[in-house]
Amino acid sequence: xxxxxxxxxxxDLKANIPKIPNAHxxxxxxxxxxxxxxxxxxxxxxxxxxxxTNYIAKNINSNRIVYGFDSFEGLxxxxxPRPIKKR
Length: 87
What we know:
Blueprint: H1 4-16, H2 25-32, E1 42-45, H3 51-59, E2 66-69
Parallel strand pairs: 1-2
């Protein structure tokens, strides 16, 4: 049985987390509120088709380069319940 403190914590946490309608919403929030540091590298790892990497590059308010890396070899083990598309 969960303690009432933990239940209250979860309820408070849930009340303060905005709804996320799609995969880019968290990034959109971060970019719109300028929560990305103005210095340092922006790197995406395991980018596959670079959809998220390109989204970041097109939407940040700077001339910074966004670097994306991928081995294109897949993961060492099956970690998802749905089939993974093979290339």
